[in-house]
Amino acid sequence: MDLARGLAVLGMLAAHLLDTERTLTPDPSTWVTVVNGRSSILFAVLAGVSIALVTGGPRPLAPQRRPRAAARLALRGALLWVIGLSLVMTGVPVYVILPAYALLFVLALPFLGMRARNLFLTAGALAIVMPWIQPFLDAAPIWAGPAGAELEAAVGWAYPFTVWIAFLLAGMGVGRLDLRNVTDQALLAMAGASLALAGYGFAIATAPVAAGDPYLAAVLTAEDHSSGLWEVIGSGGFALLTIGACLLLCRTPLRWVAVPLRAVGSMPLTAYVLQLVVWAIVASALLGDTSDLVGIREAGLFVPLTLGLIVGCTAWVLTIGRGPLEMFVDAVVRLIVGRDTRPPVTPHR
């Protein structure tokens, strides 16, 4: 899971700082475009996995234990929302995912008692239905009001929770599996590959039908950040494939080669926040404007920032352990809600 998180964090950094505004084709020079949209969706699915793992793993917490777990998750969501808005205020020209992440944490609370099958079924139903409704929600007058832009940032509407809850619930379903079992890992990868092929394949097949109708064009699309039906299915499947592949990879000696990426993924909140803070500082110093995306890309920040994150996170993990923001959030939650005293989860065989 840490490897998948590391890929998601660095994928979002690449989507921001590299020239990814091109069409994905068989030409290798366009392959960097794969990070667009898919990295943030992978991040959301992994959030669901984490929620499931801290609320019982394969066996959901008993009803009497859920209120404390729900309180802890809600407070984590509130802290993420505050951190996310602070990042928005830096003026860095990205859609900060943390406000949406925070809302998804709260929306996950009613589903904490569900097992994998029901979580996957609910996620599938939402994935099929909500893209048809999303164009109407996007056109709501509230977004065009005097505070529309501020409201969009506050709720992370670039990652609309009305659709993205499907990714979170799918991740929770993954977290309810026996993730130590090689069969479950392989089935997860195969299911993800099938969904990805179906989503992207149907996007190509239905393109002529959708071309003449704005509503169908908004729904029957796999375009990045569209929340279209085929993006939800295709990129959601890509996220499941990535998680399954990472789990299988880390059964081999290659897990040691992947230690630096796993270190980044072990402290995803710190890595995500740090990259945007460093970006803001560098852009302000070099360009005098944190919102100058073209200028910061031309400055070549991606390579040094990526290497700095990998080296810094690896050194921190090997010498200290848990990331600083992760420790801070956990300390606040323990202070206010109390320590989770339940025994460690042992996945069933």
Summarize it.
This protein has 349 residues and is mainly α. 68% of the residues lie in helices and 0% in strands.
Detail the topology: elements first, then pairings:
Layout: H1 2-17, H2 38-54, H3 66-88, H4 98-107, H5 116-138, H6 148-155, H7 161-175, H8 182-210, H9 214-219, H10 229-249, H11 254-257, H12 259-266, H13 268-287, H14 293-298, H15 302-319, H16 324-336
Helix pairs in contact: 1-2, 1-12, 1-13, 2-7, 2-10, 3-4, 3-16, 4-7, 5-7, 8-10, 12-15, 13-15
Structural features, described:
The chain has 349 residues and is mainly α. It is built from 16 helices and no strands. It has helices spanning 2-17, 38-54, 66-88, 98-107, 116-138, 148-155, 161-175, 182-210, 214-219, 229-249, 254-257, 259-266, 268-287, 293-298, 302-319, 324-336. Helix 1 (2-17) crosses helix 12 (259-266).
Q: What general outline do the C-alpha atoms trace?
A: globular
Average residue-wise pLDDT: 90
Total number of beta strands: 0
- Termini separation comes to 19 Å
Unreliable stretches, pLDDT < 50, 5 or more residues? 343-349
Range of strand content? under 5%
